Amino acid sequence: MATMLSWILVVLGQVLVAIGIACDLIAAILMHRLRSFYLRIHALTVGSIGGAVVPLIGAALIAAGSDFLGTYRWYVAGGAVVTAAITFIMAGAGTHAIARAVLRTRAVEEEPSSGA
Amino acid sequence: MDAATLCLAMIGFASLLSVFATIMAVLDRDLLRAALFSALQSTLYAFLFYVLMAPDIVLVYVAVAVGIYPLLIVLLIKKVGRFEEVGR
Amino acid sequence: MDLESWVTTFLSYAIPLYLLAFAIYVARMFREPRRVPDLVLVVDALSYDLAAFLVILSILLRTPITIPCAIALVLWIYALDIYVAKYLESKELG
Predict the structure, then answer these.
(1) How sure is the predictor about A1, in pLDDT bands with cuts at 50, 70 and 90?
(2) Apex CA B24: angle with CA B18 and CA B29, to 5°?
(3) B12 torsion bin: left (phi>0), alpha (psi -120 to 50), beta (else)
(4) What ranges do the domains of chain C cover?
């Protein structure tokens, strides 16, 4: 029964890691393709939430299901969850700080325009 | 692929990218941009130390080279001006 | 196939894709437009993805003791964001 649970955890985690890798590559390509700073902020969100938080949760599930790692797998799982939580808060906060500073100082051209 | 080959490949990859980041940090006339290239190089070096299995070094190196060193550089740039003068 | 080789095989295939994404991010830093806000966005995205990659690597290499590196990296990159944002707000410069 424990083996069945391990397999379920590992496969679920692998699905999340695969989603994260896809988001990561999409974000990297969007950084090249999107044409202005305010649009590239969307690419950063795809890269940080989709490309970091989701695979970190997946890595936590994989670590929790991997019996061969020994007792320390709970350390890995807990650390991954904590990193995911911190990233979830910090990525958004840092992006908002940068975007606010750029918007207030008009450091880059405004495109698409806010209409103000 | 075994773990040693994988680690060597990642070491080579991170070293190669950090060389370009260092060249840009040296050549750039905009000092704030140079500080950001230096932060990129530090991030890649932290990854390098991680692959070389030195997690204690990584903890210190990330705090110093990504955290405190750009803070000092940004404070200095605020004092002395952002653009390097050409022809000196 | 047992669980260990299944996990190892999957994570081994994940590594080249992550490295490809890092290469594309770093290539973005050398392209125009290369203003400071654009570079900050790229360094941010690269570092958050690197934190996820470090956790995956610690499972693959069986070194659970290296987890705090990812936490430290995420926290200090946020500090870098705040420095640059404060500088841009205090000076009227792009």
Answers:
(1) low
(2) 155
(3) alpha
(4) 3-90
What pLDDT does A61 receive? 95
Is the CB of A62 less than 8 angstroms away from the CB of C35? no
Closest CA to B10 of C5, C10, C15: C15
B/C touch flag: 3 or more CB pairs below 8 Å: yes
Closest Cα in chain C to A8? C3
Contact B27, B11 (CB under 8 A): no
Q: Judge whether A54 and A19 are in contact, CB under 8 Å.
A: yes
Of C29, C60, C68, the CB nearest to B59: C68
Report the largest interatomic distance among the alpha carbons of chain C, rounded to a whole angstrom. Answer: 61
Residues of chain C with pLDDT under 50: 93-94
- Cα C48 from Cα A53, distance rounded (Å): 9
- Those residues whose C-beta lies under 8 Å from the C-beta of residue A56, and which sit 6 or more positions away, are A20, A80, A81, A83, A84, A87, C51, C52, C55
Determine the distance from the C-alpha atom of residue C69 to the mean position of all C-alpha atoms in its chain, rounded to a whole number: 12
Distance between CA atoms of C50 and B46, rounded to whole angstroms? 10
Which residues of chain C are within 8 Å of residue A79 when distances are taken between CB atoms?
55, 67-68, 70-71
pLDDT in tens, B37-88: 999 999 999 999 999 999 999 999 999 999 899 999 999 998 888 887 776 5
DSSP one-letter code for A112? S
Place of tokens 């000076």: C91
Q: Which residue of B has its CA nearest to C47?
A: B43
pLDDT tens-place string over residues A34-71: 888 899 999 999 999 999 999 999 999 999 998 888 88
